[in-house]
Amino acid sequence: MIKLILLGIGFLLVFEGLLYFFLANRIKYFLEQMNLIDTQIIKTISLISIGIGSGLIYFILRFYS
User: Which sequence spans correspond to the domains of the chain?
Assistant: First the structure.
């Protein structure tokens, strides 16, 4: 189980690193745009992402292990 958690964290770091590497010149623009979005909308999107991610992890561990 710990192996899967570390694997997931590793993939997360790789994909986030790639995102920032390829979009380095646009990061400031994206951050400025984030300041214009209402905080409640950001929280709602984050909560939906957490739900989808948790569901995906549950189904993978339930049906593929």
Answer: 2-63
| Upper half-sphere CA count for residue 32 (Cβ side, 13 Å) | 5
Cβ atoms 27, 20 nearer than 8 A: yes
Query: Would you give the DSSP letter of residue 37?
Result: S
CA distance 4 to 43: 27
The string of pLDDT tens digits covering residues 19-41 is: 889 988 898 898 899 899 999 99
Spatial distance between the Cα atoms of 40 and 42, rounded to a whole number of angstroms: 5
Q: Tens digits of per-residue pLDDT, 39-55?
A: 999 999 999 999 998 89
